[in-house]
Design brief:
single chain; 82 residues; mainly alpha; 2 helices; 0% strand; elongated
Length: 82
Amino acid sequence: MKREYLFWVLILASFIFLVLVINHSVYEIHYLKSFFPGTFTVEQAKDAAIVEFVKVIFISIPVFIIIWISLNLLGRRQPKDL
């Protein structure tokens, strides 16, 4: 029973981590836009968004693997009281 809670906490922590990473990327683009108000073009904003998207993908791949492993381990556990 405690292992199940551990896996659910791990999954929840992974989702919270992903939300924080994505939120940081959005704020970083907003910071760049406010830092260069007159010279930050739409093309540069698109390039910055692509860079942030790639960074989020690279960070989230291991997190998705952790979530997938945790869900598989939870699914393989057999109930004892059947």
